[in-house]
Known about the structure:
Layout: E1 2-5, E2 17-19, E3 22-24, H1 31-42, E4 48-49, H2 57-60, H3 65-80, H4 105-112, H5 124-145, E5 149-152, H6 173-183, E6 189-193, H7 200-206, E7 212-219, E8 244-249, H8 255-272, E9 276-281, H9 298-309, E10 315-319, H10 325-340
Parallel strand pairs: 1-4, 1-5, 5-10, 6-7, 6-9, 7-8, 9-10
Antiparallel strand pairs: 2-3
Helix pairs in contact: 1-10, 3-4, 5-6, 8-9, 9-10
Amino acid sequence: MLTVYSPDHELRNAKTELYGGELVPPFECPERMQFVLERIREVRLGGVIGPEDFSIDPVLRIHDRGFVEFLQSCWAEWQATGYRGEAIPCVFPARGMQQRIPDHIEGRLGYYAMALETSICEGTWTAARASANVALTAQSRVRSAGDSVFALCRPPGHHASADQYGGYCFINNAAVCAQAFLDQGASRVAVLDVDFHHGNGTQAIFYHRDDVQFVSLHGDPREAFPHFLGYADETGAGPGEGFNHNYPLGPGTAYDTWSEALRHACNRIREYGPDALVVSLGVDTFEDDPISFFRLTSDDFRRYGTVIGALDLPTLLIMEGGYAVEEIGINTVNVLIGFEGH
């Protein structure tokens, strides 16, 4: 399987994350990608290529222009205030408040953030653009060859909505690529999100549409981030009614239960009949992941890769989460090996 990768992800090297009432080193760190890349080369999964440069236009098909401009300028504006730490919002347009966009960077951080844990540092925008280019390059290969390709993206993307960042995500790579398939002639695209955390951004982007089916297996939002989206009764709205499917699962979920949900989700995808499949591939469902509560083993990742591969669709697999850093390479590549060997 071909992998697309850019070392520019390293330009985002944040030092702070708000976790458990403390500022800690981020769980989402550059080392994650090195472990995956090393494992790809160790097992000789296939070639590794760099991304092409795309214009901002595919990103703007999904994201609000004002939001994109905010991401581009945030770090410079934050530094210009004289603040010495990384950019973290301290106020939000909460219930009962105006939803106006402030001029000051402190206010705009709060307006465009969906959570507090993700700081913005030097290099964040460059890394996010490189991540989108990685995804779009892989998408173009899937479209032209009808084959399946792995986009080794960092930062991840599935928590980013049209005009909000958070959960380590800035540009929603899966959504951008799903839209690219449609713009290039596909009639229907399915997005399967197997990250532990619900892909709230992807759901929000496509919730009113029937040309993209969103299917997600994730930690029950009553117990897990992002808490305010991902319930089973969220099935789409308007033209999108019936095209959004959530499988929230509780603490301690092991492979037997998780895989039953996956098979049900895959049957929904078969019934939908998409022209292409985008997989938001997070491996934070692993039993030793530090910020998750599922119990999948490394062997389970190979097993479920086989299930997804059996859909026999042109497939773009996009890297999302996974924070057991030393095992992330084994678990991610196990999915890809299982997918190819289905």
